[in-house]
C-alpha cells in the first residue's frame, strides 16, 4: 500500500510539478462459498478504489470519490452496464426488371443481408465514478452530485449479513418496504450541534443518477429527506424521514431506530413505516457482541405489506481476525412466512468466506 502511494506521488510530481491532492487507495480480495439446498456457489471477488482530497487552506477540505472496481455476484463478468442492441440479420430482396429477347421479366436482382445493432455487451464500468464532490468545514459537510443517496428513513436493522452471496438464489419476500426514489441528482448537508447529528438531503431528480438532466423539466420527480440522531441517556435514538415524489403516487417514509450497550455488546431495534399506494411496515432487532477476538451478530426482521403475508428473516454472522487486514467469517440467512413463488429458490443459505484488505 505504501509503495503504491509512493509510486503514484512520484508520477504526480513528474506530470504536474507539485502533488496537491491526497490520494487514498484501498483494495480487497475475498473467497466465499455458499451452500443453499443442493446448490454450492463459489465467489472470488476483488476490489480497488481511489479517492482524492485537498485542503483549500481556508478551513475547507474538498473530497472527491474516484473510481471503484468491484465484484458483483449478480452481474455477468462483474461489469455493470447497459447492453448494446443485439445483432439482427434480415434478408432483403431487391426486385427489378430484366429484358430477355425484348420481353420484360421481373426477377430478384439482389439478395442482401442487412445487419443492425452493435452486438450485446456490458460496456459500462463504474458509472458512478467522480459523480460526487464534498466540502467539509468545521460547520459541517456539503455534498452535491448526480448520484446522491438520501435513504435516511431506512433505519431498519435485523440483517447482519455482509456478503452479497448470502442472498443469491433465495426466494423473494412477499412483504418488503420500498422507499421510492432515494438516489439521483441532488445535494445533501450533514452537521452536528452539541451531541445531536443532523442530515438534510434534496434530490432535484430521483430517477437515477445521470450526470446530465433537465432541471426545468415538468416530469422531474424530487425527494426531500431529513434525519437526526440524539443521545438519550444510555440510548442513541435516530429518526429519519423521506418523501419521494413520483408520477403515480408519493411515498412518505419514517423510520426510528435505537441502540444501547447490553453486556459486552450492543442491542439495536428499529421500526419503519411506508405510506404509499401499498403501505408497508418493517421492524427489526439485532445484537452484536465480542467473543474474545471474534465478533458475533444475530438479527431478526419482519416485514408486513398490505395484501401480502408477513415475511420473517433471521440472520447471523461470526467473524474472526486472522491477522492485520485479514479475517475469516461464517454467516447465514433464513426466510420464513411469505416468500414469493415467482422466484424459484431456497429459503436459507450458509456462507463461509475469507476477506483481505490492503
What does this structure look like?
This protein is mostly beta strands. Helix content is 4%, strand content 58%. Strand 16 (311-323) and strand 17 (326-337) form a beta hairpin. The protein starts with a helix and ends with a strand.
Could you give the count of β-strands? 18
Return the CATH topology of the largest domain: Porin
**What is the highest CATH level, the class of the largest domain?**
Mainly Beta
Our count of helices gives 1
Detail the topology: elements first, then pairings.
Layout: H1 2-16, E1 22-36, E2 39-55, E3 61-69, E4 88-100, E5 103-116, E6 132-137, E7 140-149, E8 183-193, E9 196-205, E10 223-232, E11 235-244, E12 251-262, E13 265-275, E14 280-291, E15 294-305, E16 311-323, E17 326-337, E18 348-357
Antiparallel strand pairs: 1-2, 1-18, 2-3, 3-6, 4-5, 6-7, 7-8, 8-9, 9-10, 10-11, 11-12, 12-13, 13-14, 14-15, 15-16, 16-17, 17-18
Brief summary:
This protein has 358 residues and is mostly beta strands.
List keywords for this structure.
4% helix, 58% strand, Porin, two-stranded antiparallel sheet
Amino acid at each position: 500500500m505504501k509503495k503504491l502511494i509512493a509510486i503514484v506521488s512520484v508520477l504526480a510530481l513528474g506530470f504536474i510539478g507539485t502533488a496537491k491532492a491526497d490520494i487514498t487507495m484501498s483494495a480487497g480480495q475475498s473467497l466465499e462459498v455458499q451452500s443453499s439446498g443442493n446448490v454450492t456457489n463459489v465467489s472470488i471477488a476483488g476490489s480497488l478504489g481511489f479517492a482524492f482530497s485537498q485542503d483549500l487552506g481556508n478551513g475547507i477540505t474538498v473530497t472527491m470519490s474516484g473510481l471503484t472496481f468491484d465484484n458483483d455476484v449478480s452481474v455477468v463478468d462483474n461489469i455493470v452496464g447497459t447492453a448494446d442492441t443485439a445483432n439482427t440479420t434480415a434478408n432483403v430482396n431487391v426486385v427489378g426488371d430484366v429484358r430477355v429477347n425484348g420481353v420484360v421479366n421481373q426477377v430478384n436482382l439482389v439478395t442482401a443481408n442487412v445487419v443492425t445493432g452493435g452486438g450485446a455487451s456490458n460496456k459500462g464500468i463504474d458509472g458512478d465514478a467522480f459523480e460526487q464532490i464534498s466540502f467539509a468545514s468545521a460547520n459541517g459537510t456539503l455534498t452535491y452530485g448526480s448520484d446522491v443517496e438520501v435513504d435516511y428513513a431506512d433505519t431498519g436493522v435485523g440483517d447482519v449479513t455482509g456478503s452479497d452471496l448470502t442472498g443469491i438464489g433465495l426466494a423473494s419476500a412477499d412483504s418488503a418496504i420500498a422507499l421510492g426514489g432515494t438516489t439521483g441528482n441532488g445535494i445533501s448537508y450533514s452537521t452536528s450541534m452539541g451531541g445531536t447529528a443532523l442530515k438534510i438531503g434534496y434530490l432535484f431528480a430521483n430517477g437515477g443518477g445521470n450526470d446530465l438532466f433537465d432541471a426545468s423539466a415538468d416530469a422531474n420527480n424530487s425527494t426531500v429527506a431529513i434525519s437526526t440522531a440524539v443521545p438519550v441517556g444510555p440510548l442513541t435514538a435516530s429518526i429519519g424521514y423521506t418523501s419521494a415524489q413520483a408520477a403515480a403516487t408519493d411515498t412518505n417514509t419514517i423510520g426510528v431506530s435505537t441502540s444501547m450497550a447490553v453486556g459486552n455488546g450492543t442491542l439495536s431495534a428499529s421500526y419503519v413505516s411506508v405510506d404509499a399506494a401499498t403501505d408497508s411496515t418493517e421492524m427489526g432487532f439485532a445484537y452484536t457482541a465480542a467473543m474474545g477476538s471474534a465478533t458475533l451478530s444475530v438479527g431478526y426482521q419482519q416485514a408486513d405489506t398490505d395484501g401480502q403475508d408477513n415475511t420473517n428473516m433471521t440472520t447471523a454472522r461470526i467473524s474472526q481476525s486472522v491477522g492485520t487486514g485479514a479475517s475469516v467469517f461464517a454467516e447465514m440467512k433464513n426466510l420464513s412466512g411469505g416468500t414469493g413463488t415467482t422466484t424459484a429458490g431456497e429459503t436459507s443459505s450458509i456462507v463461509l468466506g475469507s476477506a483481505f484488505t490492503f
